[in-house]
Write a structure and sequence with these properties.
Blueprint: E1 2-12, E2 16-22, E3 32-40, H1 51-56, E4 59-68, E5 75-84, E6 86-92, E7 102-107, E8 111-118, E9 123-131, E10 144-152, E11 155-162, E12 166-173, E13 178-185, E14 193-196, E15 203-207, E16 213-217, E17 222-227, E18 234-239, E19 246-251, E20 255-260, E21 269-272, E22 277-282, E23 289-294, E24 298-305, E25 310-317, E26 324-329, E27 339-346, E28 351-360
Antiparallel strand pairs: 1-28, 2-3, 3-4, 4-5, 6-7, 7-8, 8-9, 10-11, 11-12, 12-13, 14-15, 15-16, 16-17, 18-19, 19-20, 20-21, 22-23, 23-24, 24-25, 26-27, 27-28
Length: 365
């Protein structure tokens, strides 16, 4: 089993790049992906740099929309949208055949913004924006750090974590109304990540800089359990879409861990990927092949084998020389030769790459 990589494009994103998300709506929209950036505004000449000044420096960003053709390998940047700095983004499904897929972003002003992809115009159009909290003059709004979503009948539920340790539960309707259902404080420091349980809709997981992994009940906003297995901040979570009760976690402590959520006292498997793990993305066609953004080393591809309770490193992509934050798979894969594509991005070198990946001899579950 192995993964082999070939860089097709290396792009300067100008601002520091930290998130990449491929649209998985259908084959028509699989040509599109978005990249989010985060940039601290430069100080004016003569201004000193200290902790308080750094906190007050505005953070700006851009959302880029790209078009990629798997056949020719051609890449085109279609759009650049000026925004507050982007921390995370996720594609949401279209409401109907007459509307386009939606892109939700979490930004440094503590806001969630939602855009619609208009495929005919090859553009993103902003639909709504919501501030998670109402900040007083004395209290700066938290950064919205991560978001996740799930369908809820004729609406979409979202959860968002922020830099003050809060988790916010939002609801977005087909009429375009975005509202806060509830907010509660979950972590003593930054709540780096949050996700829905793919098998238990009322359960949400969160991870924070306090080294805690928590489970919450959305109906009561109460904590279900606390896990203290991580030796540093918990930075990313994956409730596996194919295997019930299985949760993967990434941490600044460099370990990728697999848990059974019914027995959280011990892990089922662990592997050290060398470098804090910021994102985990299963391939849409091979859900047990997982792309990991390992901040201080590289991007890694890992095989999950539940039969043997094992996590196996298949290959590493080492094109980037800065903090590896953003990564996602193209939704398509050629079964006969295991050919797929991925997009990756890194921070201080403001680089975004599109690569082909051969998943040779990888078992399909």
């Amino acid at each position: 089993m192995f993964a082999m990589f070939k860089t097709l494009h290396s792009v300067d994103t100008e601002y520091s790049a930290d998130s990449v998300e491929w649209c998985v709506q259908d084959d028509q929209h699989a040509r599109y992906f978005a990249c989010g950036t985060y940039q601290l505004v430069q100080l004016e000449q003569g201004e000193g740099e200290d902790d308080e000044t750094t906190k007050k420096r505005p953070r700006k960003g851009r959302v880029y929309l790209y078009h990629f053709e798997t056949g020719s390998g051609a890449l085109e940047r279609l759009q650049s949208i000026e925004t507050a700095a982007i921390l995370d983004m996720k594609w949401l499904p279209a409401w109907s055949s007459d509307s386009g897929p939606l892109l939700a972003t979490a930004n440094a002003l503590g806001e969630v913004e939602i855009y619609e992809l208009l495929a005919d115009e090859k553009q993103l159009q902003k639909r709504t924006c919501l501030a998670l909290t109402t900040a007083s003059a004395a209290a700066e709004a938290p950064l919205a750090l991560a978001l996740d979503w799930q369908r809820d009948g004729d609406a979409v539920q979202l959860v968002v974590s922020d830099s003050k340790g809060n988790i916010s539960h939002l609801r977005y309707t087909a009429q375009g109304e975005l509202s806060v259902v509830g907010t509660w404080n979950a972590h003593g420091f930054e709540a780096w990540t949050c996700t829905f349980d793919r098998w238990t809709p009322q359960r949400v997981y969160s991870g924070g800089d306090d080294c805690l992994l928590l489970a919450h009940d959305l109906r009561t906003e109460q904590r279900v359990w606390t896990n203290r297995a991580h030796q540093a901040g918990v930075t990313c979570l994956l409730s596996h879409p194919q295997h019930e009760h299985h949760l993967l976690t990434g941490s600044y402590d460099e370990q990728l861990r697999l848990f059974d959520t019914r027995a959280m006292k011990r892990t089922l498997a662990e592997v050290n990927l060398g470098g804090g793990i910021w994102r985990l993305k299963p391939h849409p066609q091979r859900l047990d092949v997982i792309l990991a953004a390992c901040m201080y080393t590289n991007f890694s591809v890992v095989q999950l084998d539940l039969k043997d309770s094992a996590l196996t490193l298949l290959g590493t992509y080492e094109e980037h020389s800065s903090i590896c934050y953003g990564a996602d798979w193209h939704p398509n894969l050629t079964e006969d030769d295991g050919l797929t594509h991925m997009a990756t991005c890194s921070f201080y070198d403001h680089k975004m790459c599109v690569s082909s990946v051969h998943l040779g001899c990888v078992k399909s579950e």
